[in-house]
Amino acid sequence: MQIARPGSLAWKGVTTGSATRECAGESFALLSRSDRQHRVSCRSLSLVLACGENGTVIDPSQDAFGAALLDYLDGQEVAELVLEVDGGQSGPALHPEWFFRDFERWEWWDRELLPLIEHGPVLDLGAGAGRASLYLQKRGLAVTAVDASPGAVEVCRRRGVADARLGDVNDPPADQAWGAVLLLCGNLGLGGSWEGNRRLLGRLAELTGPGAVLVGDSVNPDGPPRVVLRLRYRGLVTPWWPQYNIPARQMSALVDGTGWRMERRLEDGEDHAVVLRRA
Questions:
Q1: What mean pLDDT do residues 94-111 have?
Q2: What is the reported pTM?
Q3: Which of 218, 237, 224, 193 is nearest to 84 (CA)?
């Protein structure tokens, strides 16, 4: 699932400093932008909180992210969504409203890169509330949205995503030869480790057709690239999940040998996004 966007602190990994922050799927830097001056000794929800550490979907009794999205969709009062870092620190996650924003209010790199996708079917991993899926679907592309949050999948369906599935993002569906893949809001780090991220990229190369593209992003960690996170909303708490944030200078090495080649890279401070082409 998407829980935060690139550039939020949760994505950033454990660093030194006081505790404070999508996509997540889109997620998945979950701390609010107003808290960026802090450094969580520990960046996603989108990112993904797509699955727990054991690589499974989230039980409804633990679906804090999905419950927050559903409350926002239904016009209910939305309580604070809290991102917790293994080790005792916590801070406010992005408000669920962020995951419902339309194209004009997205981050500039999303607005620059997603229009480059011209062919489907598109696989949106860690789809969150379905913002990217709906954008591409409205452009006439077939899109499959996958998230490990049952609530997020319900939100996608209710908002009009034609094919929204509950699933483990590290075990992507193999029923189509995908023409494009999305790993937004830090979801390039959903593999949970360096080798886990490479395995996910390798598997996606196997499942995509000739000339397929992958659009994804990550964030430069201030400390160790691996961080373990969970979300809390009202009385619900997600399982812990590992996030591995990829330094921009290491992106080429990560991609090399996975079946993809770097076609384009954008950087904005700590945030960086890529377009990969199937080799």
A1: 94
A2: 0.85
A3: 237
